[in-house]
Amino acid sequence: MTTTSAPPSSPPQRREPAAQKRKGRFGDRLFAGASTGSGILILLVLAGVAVFLISRSIPALTADTADLPNEEGLGAYIGPLIFGTLLAAVIALVVATPLAVGIALYITHYAPRRLAALMGYVMDLLAAIPSVVYGFWGIATLAPALVPFYGWLERNLGFIPLFSGPASVTGRTMLTVGLVLAVMILPIISAISREVFSQAPALHREAALALGATRWEMIRMSVLPYGKSGVIGGAMLGLGRALGETLAVAIVLSASGVVTFDLISSTNPSTIAANIALQFPESSGLNVNVLIASGLALFVITLAVNMLARWVVNRRADFSGAN
Amino acid sequence: MAKRIDVSDLDIYYSSFLAVQGVNVSIEPRSITALIGPSGCGKSTFLRSLNRMHEVIPGARVEGKVVIDGQDLYGAEVDPVDVRRQIGMVFQRPNPFPTMSIYDNVIAGVRLNSTRMKKSDMDDLVERSLKGANLWAEVKDRLNRPGSGLSGGQQQRLCIARAIAVEPEVLLMDEPCSALDPISTLAIEDLMTELKERFTIVIVTHNMQQAARVSTATGFFNLSGVGQPGRLVEFNPTEKIFSNPEEKATEDYISGRFG
Ligand SMILES: Nc1ncnc2c1ncn2[C@@H]1O[C@H](COP(=O)(O)OP(=O)(O)OP(=O)(O)O)[C@@H](O)[C@H]1O
Ligand SMILES: [Mg+2]
User: Fold this and answer.
1) Which helix (H) or strand (E) holds B6?
2) Whose CA is nearest to atom 12 of ligand 1?
3) Which tens digit of pLDDT belongs to each residue from A163-201?
4) Contact residues of ligand 1, CB 6 A cut-off
5) What's the CATH number of domain A53-60+69-320, 1.10.3720.10, 1.10.2020.10, 2.60.120.1130, 1.10.10.10?
6) What pTM does this model have?
7) Strands B60-68 and B5-14
8) Which of A203, A206, A217 has the CB atom closest to B112's CB atom?
């Protein structure tokens, strides 16, 4: 240090480190304050939503069965909606996740660089299409196109309860909705998978290759394990979107409030979000409370799904490679 | 079975950057060859060209010939995957698979190479390989814990265990001991001396004593200037390099009068 040789002549220099330290601490405090503030804000918003949903649901929860719109009780009304919501979202997830992982792997590890960039761009564009467009595509193009396929399913795989039929003649079935939702959540899942796959450390990829792994073996040994929690996170984001999707479902699905695993018939359970959107304009009084109670159910489901995802991701945190 | 490596007129590129130029060398089977030289002169680059790990880097390529026991390593019909199954590698930075347990790390290569293996055989192999890498005593009670939970030196020994578990014909080691304490280093050196009865070993090291202690032949890489390609300046029996080197540059480097 040069300052030690001439302390009396350079008091400003001597003060500098201390001042810097204080400034650093101030910056730290500012940042800590700002991030704590945003954290609290999010919790407040969430709590506000929850309070709203609960307080407006109470009339429906405590009402007489006879006063309810269907006159059979709240459970009988919301139950099929919950069922429909979960069914549509699960179909979407089951179809979209493997596809998204495949696309992400192709883009990050197989495609020539130019093509990879182009495909990434196209996938991002898919995410930018508004859901009403997906809805119209579903009802105008996809549904009619699937009608012959549903007929074939009923004839050949009708022994499986999922395809017992009678096959819808319009194609506006649960399966169509699930497929539309799958296309909608595909970009989310594949974008996140792409991101994590491309970040798999070269160190570990080389470790696998040096052992004589083929490209696919290398992916299995180092890329997939590294990206697993990211893929699960992406799938959960996609699931969240599928659970809450309103317009596309409302447009495509021909719903009738039943509970059935038959995916290809014209009688289908509706979903919570679509049902709210369709019923809300014509509702008043207690009916509004019932709809809000169904919204509360959706809120709880989404929360539960996210917590489940977190638990899945953390279960093997030791082996995640993050340490 | 150990193999002989013949390199002739080898140029190694990263895209348009010529990193190593004009290497001619013959590496004897059942020997330890040490590569020494200043940082950035292309030792790692050369080493990686011996098992085709070089071409994993986008844009990287080689010109010239590498012949292993009469077979052209870069021949059109040669699959780099097969090459790497026979020529193992230990990297400069330890790289155990973080998502695998210690046990699974050791047999990762074997799982790729072979068909089914009995559990008891696998257990034996894991124990033998870990003992070979002088790691067994430290990890035998936690074989199912992740490999990434080990210290840096332990991780490197795990990588060595993983590499020797597949019984490669040639073992390439890029500064394998740079993260190790003297005791583990000696253990690795003993291991190398033992392994050379069966394998051909090429090791990059910055540690002159290590090169002098373990190797039969030594190659000195050097740069003629910044931005110039690295060259193999001298390749001779280790005794000769350390007592009576042919090149002035070699003598300067070894005696610390470099630069
Ligand atoms: N992936 C890469 N892309 C481009 N250039 C590279 C790459 N890796 C190494 N190089 C360059 O090639 C030259 C040789 O590098 P190399 O890693 O082989 O040196 P080294 O002798 O192993 O050095 P050290 O002793 O520090 O490990 C250096 O100029 C380096 O910058
Ligand atoms: Mg190096």
Assistant:
1) strand B5-14
2) B19
3) 887 888 888 999 999 999 999 999 999 998 998 999 888
4) B 14, 17, 19, 39-45, 57
5) 1.10.3720.10
6) 0.80
7) antiparallel
8) A217
